[in-house]
Every structure is written in C-alpha cells, then in structure tokens.
C-alpha cells in the first residue's frame, strides 16, 4: 500500500465537491481496494459515498425499473419486483462473484469494475490500460480469456460484469450527477470500447457520480434469463454468456433483446440476432439460425478462437431456454 487520504461524504453536495477536486469514489470497495493493494490503482483521495441516499429500487406501474447506484448486488437479485419483471437481472447477479462479495458490492461499482486481464493486474507487464503507451502484453501473450469483439490493437480485454450484459440487452440508461447537474446516458454509450485510449473506460465527466440504472418498460409478457459459461461452476468469470429477453404474443416474437458477455471489450449487444428473431415463430431452427449471427465481426486471437463457436452455442441455448421451441 501507499499513503492516501480518506473522507466520508455526508451528502451528495459534499461528494460532488470532493469528486470535482479529484477524489475517487468508493462504496463497497470490492474491486478498488484489491487494485490498490496490488498498486495497480493509486488514488490520492478516496471519497466514501456509502452514506448517500441511493439505495432504493423503484418499480413504476408499467414495469420500468430504477435501481439506486448503492443498492447491493444481493439485494437487487433478491428484490421481488426485479425477480418478477426481469429474471435476467437476478440470474446475472446470482451467477456473479461469491455470496460475500454480492453482499458488499454495489450496482454502480459493479458496472465500474475493471478488467480481469492478468497483465493489467501485473504491474511488471506492459499494459496500455494501466499505463498508456506501454503496449499490450495480451495481444501476443496468453489471451484465452480475452475479447473477440470490439477489440483494438491497443487492448483486447473483456469487461467482466455479468449484470452489465443484462443491462445492455435491456437497453438500460445510466443516470449521472455531476457539477453541471443530472444527465442520462444510454448504457450502450456508457462503457467505452478501447480504441486507442483503453485507459478511458466510461463516458464519465470529471467528478460525475452514478446515481441509478434505469430499465425501460417492456411489453408483457416478457420472458428473460441469463446463461453463463465458465471454466468452473462458481466464483469464475464468463468465457461466454448470453442475456435474452423475449416478448412473444400470438405465437410470434414481437420484441427481442439479446446481448453477450465474456467476448467483448464491453457487454456486446447483438442486433443482428434480434433482427433474425422479430416477427418469427419460436422454433429450434430459428434459434440456431439467429445464433449464427452472434459472432458477426469477431476477431479471435491466437488462444481464444474457440469463443466464436462457443458464443453461437451459448446464444442458441439461451434462446431455446427462454423462448422454448417446437
Ligand atoms: Fe492491458 Fe488491455 Fe492489453 Fe490486458 S488487453 S494487457 S488490459 S492493454
């Protein structure tokens, strides 16, 4: 460790002032404290925001959902309204981390968590994300768990969050509060692909704070769920995953929301798969045909070519689980 100062914000105004002055927000601390121990992150000032009133889950009449940024992962997963309306969110959370971590980590912190790329966490390795301009050791190194979609020559790391995949599929919105007031950012624009600046990961302005994640109302009935494929059955990150939500009425798929995890530098929305599904009748043939589009644009690396086929199979299987078939 190294010296840093710590302050606990009593209210939002105090937090924003400290954030504007370069303070780093911390709540559950399940990612940041680890990274500080390893000296991967070296914030000079920590601003504890755990006392802010951001712990509510609100369900609006038509099924829109607002999750406060400081609600614990475990509490979101167990919430009756979330379970009833969006099982894909509960399932993604329950398949994440350990029970102890889910009891500590917040929703805002979860989507802000940093990559599990081992080179990023090894301060002796070249890593453009940790140290811009130093290179990317993963590009020609051991890259079995890395991304096949949204990569650049500067970074090929995956985003590790499961629930972020559900949020991407459901076309959530992130609510931000900063020195200039409140604004909302579509989830698809909140997490940034690496491009030539992999050190910049979110569309946050200086001092901005996540206050909530909002899920828009979707037509009912809505079936949804999350499938995670990994090397071991618990406490492991996804090799591939699929979040699927389908509105089926009169035997026809009217709306489809599909995203993948473990394969992209950000949670990866699959619009080509969604387009294949809309207006069609559920069937095993349809699931297979649609899932063929899941890896469109993939650029596999030396050790992760298997993810192309695995991704298609993961999506196909989850479409069948959620949508049924004939
Ligand atoms: Fe760093 Fe990204 Fe390369 Fe990993 S993949 S070493 S995080 S630049």
UniProtKB/TrEMBL annotation:
The lineage of its organism: Bacteria, Bacillati, Actinomycetota, Actinomycetes, Kitasatosporales. It holds the Pfam family CO_deh_flav_C. Keywords: Oxidoreductase. Residues 1-220 form the FAD-binding PCMH-type domain. This is FAD-binding molybdopterin dehydrogenase. GO terms for molecular function: FAD binding; oxidoreductase activity. Gene3D superfamilies: 3.30.465.10, CO dehydrogenase flavoprotein, C-terminal domain, Uridine Diphospho-n-acetylenolpyruvylglucosamine Reductase, domain 2. InterPro entries: CO_DH_flav_C, CO_DH_flav_C_dom_sf, Diverse_Substr_Oxidored, FAD-bd_PCMH, FAD-bd_PCMH-like_sf, FAD-bd_PCMH_sub1, FAD-bd_PCMH_sub2, Mopterin_DH_FAD-bd.
């Amino acid at each position: 460790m190294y010296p840093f100062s710590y302050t606990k914000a009593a209210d939002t105004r105090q937090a924003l002032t400290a954030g504007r002055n370069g303070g780093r927000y911390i709540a559950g601390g399940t990612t940041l404290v680890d990274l500080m121990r390893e000296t991967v992150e070296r914030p000079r000032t920590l601003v504890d925001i755990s006392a802010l009133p951001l712990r509510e889950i609100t369900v609006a009449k038509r099924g829109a959902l607002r999750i406060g940024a400081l609600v614990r992962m475990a509490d979101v997963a167990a919430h009756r309204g979330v379970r009833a309306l969006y099982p894909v969110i509960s399932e993604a959370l329950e398949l994440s981390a350990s029970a102890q971590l889910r009891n500590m980590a917040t929703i805002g912190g979860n989507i802000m968590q940093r990559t599990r790329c081992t080179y990023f966490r090894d301060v002796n390795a070249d890593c453009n994300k940790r140290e811009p301009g130093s290179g990317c050791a993963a590009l020609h190194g051991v890259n079995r768990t890395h991304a096949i979609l949204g990569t650049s020559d500067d970074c090929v790391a995956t985003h590790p969050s499961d629930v972020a995949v559900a949020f991407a599929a459901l076309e959530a919105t992130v609510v931000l509060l900063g020195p200039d007031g409140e604004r909302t950012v579509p989830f698809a624009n909140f997490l940034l692909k690496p491009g030539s600046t992999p050190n910049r990961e979110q569309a946050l302005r200086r001092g901005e704070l996540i206050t909530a994640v909002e899920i828009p109302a979707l037509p009912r009935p809505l079936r949804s769920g999350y499938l995670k494929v990994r090397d071991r059955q618990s406490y492991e990150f996804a090799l591939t995953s699929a979040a699927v939500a389908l509105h089926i009425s009169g035997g026809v798929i009217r709306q489809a929301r599909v995203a993948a995890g473990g394969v992209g530098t950000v949670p990866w929305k699959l619009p080509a798969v969604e387009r294949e599904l809309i207006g069609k009748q559920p069937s095993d043939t349809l699931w297979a045909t649609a899932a063929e589009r899941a890896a469109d644009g993939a650029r596999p690396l030396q050790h992760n070519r298997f993810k192309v086929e695995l991704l298609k199979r993961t999506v196909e299987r989850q479409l069948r689980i959620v949508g049924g078939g004939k």
